[in-house]
Specification:
heterodimer; A: 335 residues; mainly alpha; two-stranded antiparallel sheet; 2 strands; 72% helix; B: 288 residues; ABC transporter involved in vitamin B12 uptake, BtuC; globular
């Protein structure tokens, strides 16, 4: 009798933190967001890398929405990232250099593309989705490669974005870029956090866990999947535009398959389905990449593959998943 | 003009045959065992390198190097299947994708480390070089040889899967592993052998294809889409489906690159998306 009550008490304590989301901010989350602010002052030499980490984190976050929450395996998410980058670059080159307008336009363009693609993605099983996203990514790369009179082909497209609010221009030290990226990433993160705690986010988790049962409780599965795919594409577009504006360059690499694959690696490294995993994974991946590829690019590729295999076989849930498991095991007295 | 079309058709069929021989193993692991193995091209690359090394370092003739490529890839395949792949048969597709991408990255880096990043040359024997002059158009003798090899292999595979005891064990294990195991079939052994066979064929295809597809460390990534495409378009696990899909892809890819070179690989990707929309489960797929 006592054994039963003890185990049920333990089960209550070990309850996963977001069984029913309340949207409240935990101290740990606030501490997390203080890190990038602190780094601005502590490590001024790393602001350029820092802004790229933030942007990649946002990109990974957009993949987390469809992969971690809705369970759609996409191998071509870079298509929307690159589309956003080119949209921002072309807008700045031919119409207006205002960065914020660039962000909005890039988000709209990518979201529109995502909406179109979503009709194909919701059809079929995992394999078909995989192939369709992969195919569309490759098609866009090929299109950007061949339409060099618009996109600059493999040489890419360099441009000068206008001043932010007409005051701050993008400097080489990355001061403006860092603050700009941080603010945009934080705002989009707030939106994403609200989104995954909303009924839409909850029904997406339901679809991920058992897509066949969701229609039975009245959830329009196809509409929900199309919605989140469109939103995620839009966010990826914002990330792409951010990268293009802060580096003043739109490169064809932003569309490539390696970018999609690396993105997936970051997300899995950090842990899927928890938003912060995307940011943590991107940070660790980018910093490791910066450090290791300076030593030897070939080794870098080998080790990333090696760690990927290890994560899949042994460290399910990535870094944050592992931490959560540790907390569930030892954190009873702490909380 | 007609000779031109026939020539493109012929090259396309030769190219498609090659795709088929490499991808047919994937058609079993992906189509039947439902394992998303993006690293399948790595086995083909392994076969290619084994053949090149056997020919250049050991002086083994081309035709004798082909079985070596098959055996090496099959051995590596069975070892990896026993140690790693079989742990993930029941895992989520995402895990399989990540795991096999990891293998691809590792194989690319390791190959670059040992053999350098450059294209590997292959010296075909004299009797396989040159052209055969038919009325109207010319055919490459090597491509004719490719088609011949693949035709023989296809018949042999068909016979193996449809007429032998091993073949019926494979089909039973794939259809329902639990029931097959209950009937006394050693399902693990059947899967391992099937995987080895598929990897070996990929290795053979990689060795045969050096002259047509080229061979450098990025091979697994460069042709990954094509192999996946053969399976996705062909439908799950039918040899006929994979063959027809491979031939269609081969012909369209060659024709696209020949007639409209300015759009490059676009033709094949567009074809793929269209085919997947029209036939979500493949040309010969089971209706779900």
């Amino acid at each position: 009798m006592s054994a039963i009550s003890t185990s049920s008490a333990a089960a209550a304590n070990a309850r996963p933190p977001n069984l029913l989301p309340d949207g409240r901010w935990r101290p740990l989350e606030l501490a997390f967001w203080l890190i990038p602010i602190a780094l601005y002052f502590v490590a001024p030499d790393y602001r350029v890398l820092g802004s790229q980490v933030l942007i990649t984190g946002l990109f990974a976050l957009s993949l987390d929405l469809i992969l971690g929450y809705a369970g759609i395996v996409s191998l071509g998410h870079a298509a929307f990232f690159g589309l956003g980058a080119y949209a921002a670059a072309l807008l700045a080159k031919h119409f207006t250099g205002d960065p914020l307008i660039g962000l909005v336009v890039a988000a709209l363009v990518s979201a529109a593309a995502g909406w179109l693609v979503s009709f194909l993605v919701v059809r079929g099983n995992d394999l078909t989705r995989l192939m369709v996203t992969l195919g569309i990514g490759l098609m866009l790369w090929e299109a950007a490669n061949k339409a060099s009179f618009i996109t600059g082909g493999v040489d890419g497209l360099s441009f000068t974005p206008g001043k932010l609010f007409g005051v701050w221009s993008f400097d080489l030290a990355g001061n403006t870029a860092y603050v700009y990226a941080l603010v945009v990433v934080f705002v989009v993160f707030l939106f994403a956090k609200r989104l995954v705690d909303s009924p839409l986010g909850l029904s997406l988790r339901g679809i991920r866990e058992g897509g066949k049962r969701m229609p039975a409780i009245g959830a329009p599965v196809v509409v929900r999947l199309r919605t989140i795919f469109t939103i995620a594409a839009g966010i990826a577009g914002i990330a792409g535009a951010l990268l293009a504006q802060t580096t003043q360059f739109a490169s064809i690499d932003t569309l490539g398959f390696p970018r999609s694959a690396e993105l997936m690696i970051m997300l899995v490294l950090g842990g899927t389905g928890r938003l912060y995993g995307a940011l943590v994974g991107a940070a660790i991946f980018m910093i490791a990449h910066d450090y290791l590829s300076a030593i030897d690019p070939v080794y870098w590729e080998f080790w990333i593959g090696f760690f990927l295999v290890l994560i899949v076989l042994f460290a399910h849930g990535g870094i944050l998943g592992g931490l959560a498991a540790l907390r569930a095991r030892f954190g009873r007295s702490g909380s | 003009m007609l000779g031109n079309i026939l020539g493109v058709l012929f090259d396309g069929i030769a190219y498609g045959s090659l795709l088929f021989i490499i991808a047919v193993g994937l058609s079993v692991t992906l189509g039947l065992m439902n394992f998303v193995n993006l690293a399948h091209g790595a086995f083909a690359m392994l076969g290619g390198y084994v053949a090149v090394m056997a020919m250049t370092r050991a002086g083994i003739p081309f035709l004798a190097a082909l079985p070596l490529a098959f055996i090496a890839s099959a051995l590596v395949g069975v070892v990896l299947e026993r140690t790693l792949y079989q742990r993930l048969y029941k895992a989520a597709h995402l895990d399989q994708v990540l795991f096999s991408i990891g293998l691809v990255f590792m194989s690319i880096a390791a190959t670059t480390y040992f053999f350098g990043a450059s294209q590997q040359p292959v010296a075909l024997p004299a009797y396989l070089q040159g052209q055969l002059h038919l009325p109207g158009f010319d055919v490459g003798i090597y491509r004719l040889f490719l088609i011949g090899v693949v035709a023989v292999l296809t018949l042999a595979l068909q016979w193996l899967l449809e007429r032998t005891r091993f073949g019926s064990q494979v089909r039973a294990s794939v259809d329902n592993a639990t029931a097959a195991a209950g009937l006394g079939i050693n399902v693990n052994r059947v899967f391992a052998l099937t995987f080895a066979l598929g990897s070996g064929l990929a290795g053979l295809g990689g060795a045969l294809g050096i002259d047509v597809l080229g061979l450098d460390p990025t091979f697994p990534l460069k042709y990954m889409v094509y192999f996946l495409l053969v399976v996705a378009v062909g439908g799950s696990g039918t040899i006929k489906g994979a063959l027809i899909a491979a031939l269609i892809l081969g012909v369209f890819d060659v024709a696209g690159k020949y007639y409209v070179p300015q759009v490059g690989g676009f033709v094949i990707y567009a074809l793929m998306v269209v085919l997947l929309i029209l036939f979500p489960t493949g040309l010969y797929g089971k209706k779900t």
